[in-house]
Design goal:
The complex is a heterodimer of chains A (343) and B (133). Chain A has 343 residues and is α+β, with helices and mostly antiparallel strands. Helix content of chain A is 45%, strand content 16%. Chain A has a five-stranded antiparallel β-sheet, with helices on both faces. In chain A, helix 7 packs across helix 12, helix 8 packs across helix 10 and helix 10 runs antiparallel to helix 12. The longest helix of chain A is centred in the last third of the chain and has 27 residues. By secondary structure, chain B is mainly α. Chain B has one domain. Chain B is elongated. Classes of the chains: A alpha+beta (343), B mainly alpha (133).
Chain lengths: 343, 133
Amino acid sequence: MAGEDLGERVAAFVAREEGLAAGDVRLGGLRRLAGGASREIWALDLEIERAGGVERLPLVLRRDPPGRVGDGGDRGLEYRLLRAARAGGVPVPRVHWGSGDATILGSPFFLMERVEGETLPRRLLRDERYAKARSVMAAELGAVLARIHALDPAQADLRGLAAPPADRAPARAEVERVADGIRGLAVEPHPVLDLAERWLLERAPEPARRTLVHGDYRIGNVLFDEGGVCAILDWELAHLGDPIEDLGWLCTRAWRFGSPLAAGGVGTRESLVLAYESASGAKVDRDALRFWEAFGSFKLALVFITQSRVYLDGRVRSVELASLGRRTVEAEDELLRFLRGEA
Amino acid sequence: MNDRPSARELLAAVERFLEESVVPALEGPARFHARVAANVVRIVARELETEELHLEREWDGLSVLLGSVDEEPPRDRAALRESILARNQELVRRIRSGDGDAGAWRAALLEHLTRTVADKLDVAQPPRKGRGE
């Protein structure tokens, strides 16, 4: 679908949702934002003419790439998650409209408020103008995460979340899931990953609590400005599980982008954990955190293997996907640090 | 034997073209993908430089671990790659059977894996000082 056609369809959809005539919703400034391999992100501006006057809305459209093999992300659920998170005091963009009906824009999508700010990790970690943001970020991310984990998973908006099997610790179930994925998709043997699997299974912690887990809580999915955190994005991997998973993922080496600081490259592990403990009232088991941090690299290995497999199978001829297979070794390198007892 | 420019020199030309002409002329996702493409060209160039040495080292490490030091490595590059793949399959079988969980073999295994991963990293990532923490 060309950009022009997409814009017309979005405007028509919003008009229908709002019970307005087609001409009352005008769309401008539609442009594709650089996004990841698994989703499309567009910026656009809507002008909605109502009886009371004209409303101007800067928006972001998130849509699955039409025709792409699904990544398990459910835009309808992500829409409901954002609504629940906002109600629970988590900083997130306000969601306006959305639909899982692929006939409207070619694939499931939703429209949300365009919050001003920056997401690029390298700007956060290097630019002088974000020095203050860097100094408060780890503590803020700890406190915000405590709020996410406090959301009631039984509420209507959170129905349908993936949950680990009841008979096993989420940690063990996740290691098994990722190991199965690697075995099913890797086109060559990966001795480091087999050794890491055994190390992880031996250390898989029993969860102290079971909560909503964001599932992709890391630098890159945090919208920030000079003052610190503005919004938490990318809720498509949310699930029920062990809350320490989110802390470990945020500390996973890949999300430090070369910085020596463990917590997203912006703070120490302890500054993150202390803020989280103080906001949640829950104690963080440091061995469990170490497990989940190592598991983060194990999971990343599967992400890289999966994405390069999409390329190798000829499903998506993207140079980005092709290149990601050569990043598997980064995850192996980090896992070896844990295996040698250095991390 | 092919004429100059060599494969390495041709790749350098493609990389320069991508970085100096294509990237600045594009924006959005296409610009990002052009950057990725330039990086891929650099990966290929580094692999051309180092593959022979890396394959030799991996073969030797696997020979020690699998107790097959008397076996000569295939001289043909493609056959060598195939043999290393087969040996890595065998290594994975040993790991899955628990042989690498403790003891001297584990120490040797970690040493070998550390070296092969370092070699792969040297190809996958641009050279830089103080990799890691």
